[in-house]
Design brief:
By secondary structure, the protein is mainly beta. Helices cover about 0% and strands about 70% of the residues. Strand 3 and strand 4 form a beta hairpin.
Amino acid sequence: MVALTWVFALPNLAHAQDSNLGNWLLYIGNKQLNEKWNLHHEVQYRNYDAIGDLEQLLLRTGLGYTFGESKKNILLGYGYILSENYTTDSDPKVRVNEHRIFQQFISKQKLGKLKLSHRYRFEQRFVESDFKMRIRYFLGLNIPISSKEENKYYFSAYNELFLNTKSKLYDRNRLYGGFGYQISTNVRLEMGYMNQFFNKESRDQFNIVAFVNL
């Protein structure tokens, strides 16, 4: 199964860009090796503006194992992240390289028509010469808003909390809500709003997402 996600974001950035139009392009894939084992692979290309002003490039992969009747999944993964950060209005961007090892656990629930997804992730982050660890908890929900089988409109929302293991405990929080349409069993489109809350600022983003499962 492969999921293809294109995300277009509109952040309120406190940096020196020519445009406030932000853009995220994401590819998220999952290759089922057999009934139990799966290979996760992911590419995220984020820009400060529409395109061409790189904010972050993220490459992530991992090997997962599914178990239980509810198909819980545990995964061991690796990620490489290249960030280009603005520091002041006049200085050029600073390139930061990060190598990341992570472990995650995903469980899913169904309460009537409501679908819930829980993801617990523990990250070991090698940011240049610094070592950091972080815990993330993701809670997602999906609610159909059409009773007819042929009209597969739904409401989607999630909240993801990021916590550091030292220094400042709180890292950030992502809150998202949107509407989607299931075009076919393999394709769905989604549009929504996301806000990232940092320690001293927040960013608003408008997301347009297309998921393709093959």
